Amino acid sequence: MIIKEKIALVTGAGSGLGNDFASALLKEKAAAVCLVDIVENGDKIASDLQKEFPQSDVTFYHCDVTNHSLFQGAFEFVKKRYGHIDIVCNSAGVAAYDQELEASVRALRVNLEAVYYGTKLGMEYMDKEKARGGVIINIASTAAFYPTDSGMCYNASKAGCVSLTQSAGSRYNLERCGVRVNALCPSLVDTPMISSTPGLREMIAALPNGRHEFLSIKAVVQGFLQLVENAELFGVAMAITPWSGTSIIRNNQNYITFEM
Ligand SMILES: NC(=O)c1ccc[n+]([C@@H]2O[C@H](COP(=O)([O-])OP(=O)(O)OC[C@H]3O[C@@H](n4cnc5c(N)ncnc54)[C@H](O)[C@@H]3O)[C@@H](O)[C@H]2O)c1
């Protein structure tokens, strides 16, 4: 897909990677990007991006993506304003340790349940029978593949996100509705999620075998753009780490690996 002149909806775009993905789409001259988030200063975030990219339309839609009908409201808002949607990125996410019962269940809801809503809504609103087809990128994590001692729900939510993406992104579904669905699985990236989770930085510092190394935002954004643009990529998970570069995983097997 050529991003120029396309219409995008990005969840979690009030901060961190979601905001980087929104900027990257605007740099590629997307016609419009709607930032969907629960942050309170979303209008300011959107107006700052609008100043940076005056040729595009940047909007903010405040909603909790774990609420299906509120989330659907974001899709309706974009459809009403521009007529259609081309790109959906589900980046909203939260971290959690096993000791925190409520936060762990919340991680399952935001990182998996809401990604299901965003994927299903994306497939409905971009269905080629009613619209123009499109692409959905779900932000998972290498936590889907590497177990850690204290992140059962976070890791399960990300494994679920990969599995959900593989099913939604099947060849049959692509042929039926014209929507490619892919997952991006970065290893650790130094974003506000890391700083705002107490004890996480210390836990990361103690990880063995170079696993504490942060991935550059540039590498994550490059992977994201590749998943959006490359029409050959559907139903895949792209894993990116500083220690083994980038791999495309299809049907739970590596089928392309390239160095960073
Ligand atoms: N930072 C990392 O090391 C890392 C690594 C791999 C994957 N990821 C994933 O990347 C995605 C982005 O994470 P980040 O590091 O940029 O974190 P972040 O905390 O900077 O951004 C997450 C955003 O999601 C929003 N959000 C949370 N719950 C929401 C809800 N219910 N409804 C709407 N918005 C909500 C937050 O307000 C925030 O703006 C997440 O899915 C995360 O799991 C992060």
List descriptors.
single chain; 260 residues; Rossmann fold; 9-stranded mixed beta sheet; globular; binds nicotinamide-adenine-dinucleotide
Give structural notes:
This protein has a nine-stranded mixed β-sheet with strand order 3-2-1-4-5-6-7-8-9, with helices on both faces. The relative contact order is 0.13. The chain is globular. Helix 1 crosses helix 9, helix 3 runs parallel beside helix 4 and helix 4 packs parallel to helix 5. The protein contains nine helices and nine strands. A hairpin with a 2-residue loop joins strand 8 and strand 9. The mean pLDDT is 94. It has a single domain, classed as NAD(P)-binding Rossmann-like Domain (Rossmann fold, 3-Layer(aba) Sandwich). Bound molecules: nicotinamide-adenine-dinucleotide. The site of nicotinamide-adenine-dinucleotide has 28 residues, from helix 1, helix 4 and helix 7. Its EC number is 1.1.1.141, 1.1.1.232.
Q: C-alpha Rg, in Å? A: 17 Å
The figure for the number of domains is 1
User: Under the CATH scheme, which architecture would be assigned?
Assistant: 3-Layer(aba) Sandwich
CATH class: Alpha Beta
The secondary-structure element order is: EHEHEHEHEHHEHHHEEE
Q: In whole angstroms, how far apart are the ends?
A: 23 Å
**Which ligands appear in the coordinates?**
nicotinamide-adenine-dinucleotide
Helix count equals 9
InterPro entries: NAD(P)-bd_dom_sf, SDR_fam
Organism: Bugula neritina (Brown bryozoan)
Family: Belongs to the short-chain dehydrogenases/reductases (SDR) family.
Catalytic activity: resolvin D2 + NAD(+) = 7-oxoresolvin D2 + NADH + H(+); resolvin D1 + NAD(+) = 17-oxoresolvin D1 + NADH + H(+); resolvin D2 + NAD(+) = 16-oxoresolvin D2 + NADH + H(+); prostaglandin E1 + NAD(+) = 15-oxoprostaglandin E1 + NADH + H(+)
